[in-house]
Amino acid sequence: MKFQSPLIVLASLVSAVLSATVTDIINDAHNISAQITTLDNAINAFPTTSGSLVAALGIHTDAVNLGAALNKELSDSLPKPGITEANGTTILDIAEGFEPIILDALNAFVTKKPAFQALPIGGIPALVKQDLINLNASMDMFDAQIISFVPPDLVASAEALKAAIDAGFATAIAAYQ
């Protein structure tokens, strides 16, 4: 009987992953957009001088929350049959809508580096760098997932979106090297 228990748990997990619908994917994309806006607002609100450790750690928390939202989307968007043209367009439109916001946030990370360096406790720039590396990896997988399931006529737009976001992350990460 002990042999059945792990199989039941595994079957339940597989069922939960496979039960994610296109609606779940769209809802996740909206959540990602909201998390990106939260991060963008936080980094832009961080002052160029006299910033606080609490605010810097809040930005870190926002980055972690965005990473969690991206990773949830990845688990929900395992290859799904039935991604229609309309659904693919909706998901791509959401991603294109948050592209300028994530690029603004990444630019702000570059601009605010001296403020992070000036904080009285060391290590914040290293934490920011790690957050950027982690977000880049999650965003890269998210973008690749979009490319893999949008209808063929939307692939070029999805690839252009990925290229722009990749360039933004490359610039931000390089600033913290």
UniProtKB/TrEMBL annotation:
Residues 1-19 form the signal peptide. Keywords: Signal. The keyword Repeat does not apply. InterPro entries: Cell_wall_mannoprotein_1 (IPR021054). One of its GO terms (cellular component) is extracellular region. The keyword Signal applies. It holds the Pfam family HsbA. This is Uncharacterized protein. It comes from Agrocybe pediades.
